[in-house]
Design brief:
The chain has one domain. The chain is mainly alpha-helical. The chain has four helices and no strands. The longest helix is centred in the middle third of the chain and has 36 residues. The protein starts with a helix and ends with a helix.
Length: about 140
């Protein structure tokens, strides 16, 4: 159940909640702020679930395929750490810099937007990999 909760949370946020926010709210900054807060919650849920699930599997290490499950859990947790805890702080600083540069220099603003877009794509890639690993985790645990 814990794995299903974890993977379901990741899928729901990435496939339903975030796209709905951006499709519904006219203010993209507000949508991004709300999505960022929700992604923060999902990141902490991910780490808590990874630790709890790894601990449960380690206790029941006689289960066939435990090593594979632990690798999948580690991969998902790694995607969370890289995508949220490593890239997001840098993206937040770029967002602040874009806000300051919006009234100053158009060329600087364009460069900041490009960097932000690249980091956003990389972060989305980590989230996608985490989602695919989640499919594998659920299928392997059956």
């Amino acid at each position: 159940m814990l794995a299903t909760f974890w993977v379901g949370t990741v899928w729901t946020m990435g496939l339903v909640v975030a796209p709905t926010l951006f499709a519904t709210l006219a203010d993209r900054v507000l949508a991004g702020t709300i999505a960022g807060s929700l992604f923060r919650a999902v990141a902490w849920i991910s780490l808590a679930c990874a630790i709890a699930l790894a601990a449960l599997l380690t206790i029941r290490s006689e289960r066939p395929g435990t090593n594979t499950l632990l690798y999948l859990i580690a991969g998902m947790a790694g995607c969370t750490v890289l995508g949220y805890f490593c890239l997001q702080p840098y993206m937040a600083s770029l967002r602040e810099a874009m806000h300051v540069a919006a009234s100053a220099d158009a060329a600087q603003l364009a460069a900041l937007r490009t960097r932000f877009g690249i980091l956003h794509a990389v972060s989305s890639g980590f989230y996608f990999v985490q989602s695919v690993l989640g499919v594998a985790l659920i299928l392997k645990m059956r």
